[in-house]
Amino acid sequence: MAKVTVDGIEVEIANGSSVLQAAEAAGKEIPRFCYHERLSVAGNCRMCLVEIEKIPKPVASCGQPVADGMVIFTDTENVRKSRRGVMEFLLINHPLDCPICDQGGECDLQDEAVSYGRDTSRYEEGKRAVAQPDWGPLVKTTMTRCIHCTRCIRFSTEIAGVPELGATMRGESMQVGTYVEKALSSELSGNLIDLCPVGALTSKPYAYTARSWELRKTDSVDVLDAVGTNIRIDARGAEVLRILPRLNDDVNEEWLGDKSRFSVDGLKRRRLDRPWLRENGKLRAASWEEVFAAVTNKIKSTTPDRIGAIAGDLVDVESMLALKEMFTSLGSPNLDCRQDGAVFDASQRGFYLFNTSIAGIEEADALLIIGSNSRHEAPVLNARIRKRWLAGNFQAGLIGVAHDLTYATTHVGAGPDAIAALLDGTHPFAEVLKAAKKPMLILGAGALARPDGAAIHAAAWKLAAQFNMMNDDWHGFNVLHHAAARTGALDIGFLPGPEGKATAQMLGGGVDILWLLGADALDTQAIGADTFVIYQGHHGDAGAARADVILPGAAYTEKDGTYVNTEGRVQQGFIAVKPPGDAREDWRILRAISAYMGHALRYDTLQELRAHLVQTYPGFALTGELRRLAGTNLTAPAGDLAAVSSAPFQPVLQNYYQTDPISRASPTMAACVAAHYPTLAEAAE
Amino acid sequence: MNTHIEPTDFVFDDLAEGAVTKAIARYPAGKQASAVMALLDIAQRQMERLTGSAWVPRVAMDAVAQRLGIAAVRVYEMATFYTMYNTKPVGKFHLQVCTTTPCWLRGSDEVVASCKKVSGIEDFGQTSADGLFTMTEVECLGGCVNAPILQINDDYYEDLDAARTEALLNGLKSGAPLPPAGSSIGRQASAPVTNQTALLNNTKPVE
Ligand code: SF4
Ligand code: FES
Ligand code: FES
Q1: Is the CB of residue A610 less than 8 Å from the CB of residue A621?
Q2: How many Å apart are CA A639 and CA A641, to the nearest integer?
């Protein structure tokens, strides 16, 4: 620890910290453009100048390590004068086009110019102008505004692990860019927009849409993957205009995946904003009254064991609980939340959680990924793995398709045979796992969503037990879901009851009435021709197309909802805008129908529903925080090891950008598919 | 804007391969990326050997990146930062005229004018119609004592004036090989024009 004095305030700070950090610890704000606490230090903007006793010239505080006894001044006349000088130089080549710049109102340069800028410019020469390269459908470039802080370069190289940005040429000709024009290929590219301190990098789909001060900001949770990224929803009037990440060091740090950020335009399209009823083979608009009657009559005339419900990937816990309890009161045990057809032992939380926790990845020293492309299924979590890998002393193995995960991996094998090879020690990667102190494995959803899923689940558990991945203070067995609803659904047991049917048995005519709660990812062709399908959800996607009755629900931005992320962290999202038209929050629809059928659910308000939820499943009492499980319960999940087939693992997501009804409705995501998966885009034409 | 055709592929030939291996071996294991400057130079020389134009096309930068296991953009940064890597094709004779103050005081304007006159080039950065010359303005070449300096490809031609520059370039134009480098007025190394005044035999060592 070093003792330093900042403007007369004494602070103690770890050796190796920078003067800037010391100033922050003392509560002094230092202006900065290039420094970012999650990136390496570049020290090239010079805005963070301070004075240090015994050093004759002003010092860039972000790059200056503290020394014991240092006396630092952050607000002397000299400091202010130096910063004013820096600002004047920065503005020499920066266009003063704030009125037509999307960054206006949330621009670091603009803000600092208020403190350190001159009221008039002394610069009369020509300013440099730079071409506007095309970086693809997401990030809009106006490189004339670039102040060469290199944050974007450092982010793509360090955090995203896709080094495609650089600074070419030099001096006045220096340009930040890709050199060879191309669409950015990182799934985290939207974060560049947040990082760029000026308006050089802005959001392309959001261009010229709104000013930051016009927006109503709502804290929420992302549901387009199972990471539970904390987000802020920015809305104006009835429209969600953009989504930004919120800081949460335990979950997403400050990053957000591109799909989660840019799918917002999908929230406005293909919406189910009124009830629909199929008559003579055609859907027609109907009233709530009509659809309630249709659903009630149909259910009343069907025996309970011929009714089934499948919950989709984006659904909140409250509506799943309401649906489950409605089915229980009807006497039907046919429930499943695994529309991908995965069948595995979910009798203990440890079997299906990401037990290590996302922050816990940083403690691990070896990793085995089985059947997952974590870069697509959970890009933010994948960035955490990369962060761990960058820190050194970490080896990762991969079983499945050999993807570029942005860190080095040993490809152990393509299918379950590789698990066997590790179990009997014939593959050299077994030595890596054996030598590791805190090894972890990640079992992807793709490995579970196959006929031998339960067996693979058991085999992976056996592997974890054999390589000491579970002990008193470490739990290295992890399931990585990609559906935001899955963990919560498993927590409340949205699973077949005694004698109940799972997804596969409900399809193919296994039930006469199938209630799809936002379930669009199953093969609707496989639903029996005579099955009466009730689709409750917010988008006209696969499920709605097959439906006989459509109950218009609310998207995640339009309701208060509880979600459990893949770690088992209970988080709450808040309503940012009202659902469109006649659409209603899903639990309310269920409550209303249950009353119509004469089985009224016991709750009239969300508060009551939540109180009931916590009472029934006490784990939901703790929100936001995570209680990490210790790996002490070694009871293995049920699964017949002999049933493991040797079929190689297949990717679960065809592409990163379109995976759910919202992103499929998004023109921006379609543009991304066209840019990055030209063959897929053509096939969809 | 100079439009040119980028080749579609680049492979180090046998001659270059030897140099590449040697350059990489100079750095300790894990630090091979440090050989990037050497490899770019080797690529540029190979281009000169094979096409008569010393430049590094983008595909060659990619080949360097791949060889060193680094991101291509890191090589683009290098190649575009240093002016001695040509990212566009240059003529057979790359006229690099120093116009920094000492050379300018000693008549670099004349050298520039002569270059233009003989080659027909109108301005810096251009290549002559016959593809023989490219003229580039460079900063101090570190040879100020013998200013003004014109660097042609790898060699310095010193103490130039208009007439001698023209003679030199006309020679090249008529197919003569590059004359020996150095002073064009017969000066020995960088000794004074008025002949050697120091370290003569008559000076006695100081007691
Ligand atoms: S584009 Fe933005 S983030 Fe990138 S170097 Fe320029 S100012 Fe910095
Ligand atoms: S913040 Fe210190 S130099 Fe940029
Ligand atoms: S000024 Fe021309 S060589 Fe130094």
Answers
A1: no
A2: 6
According to CATH, the topology of domain A293-345+486-621 is Rossmann fold (3.40.50)
What domains does chain B contain, in order, with CATH numbers?
14-81 (1.10.10), 93-183 (3.40.30.10)
Report how far residue B74's alpha carbon sits from residue B60's, in angstroms, rounded to the nearest whole number. 13
Closest CA to A150 of A104, A113, A196, A110: A196
pLDDT by residue (tens digit) across A372-430?
A: 999 999 999 999 999 999 999 999 999 999 999 999 999 999 999 999 999 999 999 99
Cis peptide bond upstream of B148, omega within 30: yes
> Which of A106, A151, A158, A189 has most ligand 1 atoms within 8 Å of its beta carbon, as the pocket-test mutant?
A151
Contact between chains at B76 and A170 (C-beta distance less than 8 A): no
pTM over 0.80: yes
Closest CA to A230 of A260, A207, A209: A260
Q: What is the pLDDT of residues B152-206, one digit of tens each?
A: 999 999 999 999 999 999 999 999 999 999 999 998 888 888 877 777 776 666 6
Closest by alpha carbon to A452, among A185, A645, A165, A249?
A645
How large is the greatest C-alpha to C-alpha distance in chain A, in angstroms? 89
Segments making up each domain of chain A, as ranges: 2-92, 125-268, 293-345+486-621, 349-482
Q: What angle do CA A663, A664, A665 make, to 5 degrees?
A: 90
Rounded Cα distance between A257 and A384, Å, is 13
Q: Compute the average pLDDT of residues A97-120.
A: 95
Is some CB atom of chain A closer than 8 A to the CB atom of B71? yes
Closest chain B residue by Cα to residue A173: B81
CATH 3.10.20.740 matches A2-92 = yes
For residue A212, give both structure tokens.
């930051």
From the list A165, A169, A178, the residue facing B80 with the nearest CB is A169
H or E element, residue A324: helix A317-330
What is the topology classification, in CATH, of domain A349-482?
Dimethylsulfoxide Reductase; domain 2 (3.40.228)
